[in-house]
Amino acid sequence: MGRARPKTSKAKLLGASSATAAENKSEPTIPALLEKAQELIIQCDYELAERFSRRVLEREPHNFDARELLGVAQLEQGELEAAKATFQSLLPPSQTAPSTPPSSAHLYLAQLSDDDPHLALQHYQAAVDILTARLKGKDRATDSASLTDDESEMQRNVVRALIGMVEIWMDPSYDLCFDPTAEHTCENLLNMALQVDPGNAEALQALASVRLSQQRPDDAKACLEQAWTSWKDFDLDDSRLPPIPTRLALVKMFLELALYTPALLVLQGIMASDDQEVEAWYLEGWCFFLMAEEAREKEEPLDGLTWQELAKDARDCLETCHMLHVSQEHPDTPLLDHVKELIEKLEALGVHLSPPGEDGEDGEGWESVEGSDEDEDVEMS
Questions:
Q1: Residue 128 to residues 88, 107, 123, 131, 155: CA-CA distances in angstroms?
Q2: 3-state secondary structure of 289
Q3: Contact (Cβ atoms closer than 8 angstroms) between residue 49 and residue 37
C-alpha cells in the first residue's frame, strides 16, 4: 500500500493565497499614507504624522515626499538636529538626494541655520534660484490673475525667501547689519520681491520696516497702508490672510507710528482667531497704554475715551497677558518684564484691575473703532 498523500491540498493553498491577497488589499497605498501624513501635519499631530511618513519610507526608502514630511514632523516636535539631517538628505552631495533638489529643503534649512547667517543666506538664495528657474519663461508670472495654484505658491515662496534674507541682513544680533552694503542689499532684495509679486503685503511690510530704520516714517506709513489695505477685508478663514506673526509685526510698526486705530483693528482679527495669543494681548495692552499717555498729556479724550478709561483697558489686557504668559510657560521673558513694568506704572497712577464680574475685555472701551462701518476706510494719519 503506497504512502498516503498528505491532505495539503489545493484548498489550503488557495486559502493561504486568498488571505495574502486580502492582506495586500488592506495595506494602504503610498499616496494614501502620504495624504494622511499631510493631513496630520495640518492638524498639528506631528508624532502620528512622523509614524505615517516612516511607514512610507519602510516601503520606499527614497520617497522624497515622505522624507520631507518626516523632516517637517521632526522640526515641529523640536527635534532640530534630526530635522536638519532629514532635509540635508534631500540635497547634494547626499547620495539620496533627488536629481532636482526641492526648494523647500533649502527654505527649512535656512530657518534651521540661525546660528550661521551666511549659511542661511546661501540656503535662501538656493531656494530663490530653484523657484525662479521654474517660473522663468512664464509670461504670466507677474499676472496674479492668471497664475495656477502651483505658480502662485512658488511666487509666494520666492518672496518669503527674499524677505527672510532681508531679515537676516537687518538683524542686529548679526554683524551683517553693520556691513556698509546692508542697506543697499536690502533695497535690492525687496525690489526683487515686488517685481516677482507686485503689491505683495509681506514685501511691502518688510519695506516699511526698512523705511523706519532709515528714519522715513511717511514712506513707511505709505507702505503699511498699501499692505494692510490689500487684505484687511478678508474673512478670518481666508487663506490669503497673512499669518498671525506677520500681522503682529504689522501691529508693532503701527504702534511705532502712533497709528492706534488700525493696530487695534488688526489685533481684533487676531484675537478672533486665537484669544490665547500672548503677544496679541501684550500689544493691545501696550496700545491702550500709549493712547492713555497721549490723552493724559493733551488733557483731552482720545477717540472719545478719557485717559482713565484707556488706562483701565490697558491694565485689563496686560493682566490677561500676564496670566496667559505664566499658564503657557511662554518663553519670551523680556515681554513679561515689560508687562510687569507697565502694570506697575498703571498701579502707581491708581489704575487697578477690574473687579471680578466687571467686563473690561469685551471691546467696550473702543467701540468707536469696532463699531465703525465695515467698508469705511480707516484714515491713517
A1: 17, 9, 9, 5, 10
A2: helix
A3: yes
Residue 28 phi/psi, 5° resolution?
-60, 150
Say how many Å lie between the first and final Cα of the chain, rounded: 110
Q: With 90 as the cut, is the pLDDT of residue 216 above it?
A: yes
Query: How many residues comprise the chain?
Result: 381
Contact between residue 122 and residue 145 where contact means Cβ atoms under 8 Å apart:
no
Domains defined for the chain, CATH in brackets: 30-96 (1.25.40), 102-218 (1.25.40), 231-381 (1.25.40.10)
Between 321 and 139, residue with greater pLDDT: 321
Q: For residue 2, what is the DSSP state? A: P
More confident residue, 104 or 380: 104
Q: Which residues of 207-238 are buried (b: 16+ CB within 10 A; e: fewer)?
A: bbbbbbeeeeeeebbbbbbebbbebbeeeeee
Dump pLDDT digits (tens) for 20-57: 444 455 788 999 999 999 999 999 999 999 999 999 99
Distance CA 263, CA 192 (A): 28
Nearest to 66 by CA among 33, 103, 101: 33
Kindly report the pTM of this predicted structure. Answer: 0.79
Instruction: Extract the C-alpha cell encoding 153.
Output: 505658491
Q: What is the DSSP string of 133-177?
A: HHHTT-TTTT-GGG--HHHHHHHHHHHHHHHHHHHHHH-TTSGGG
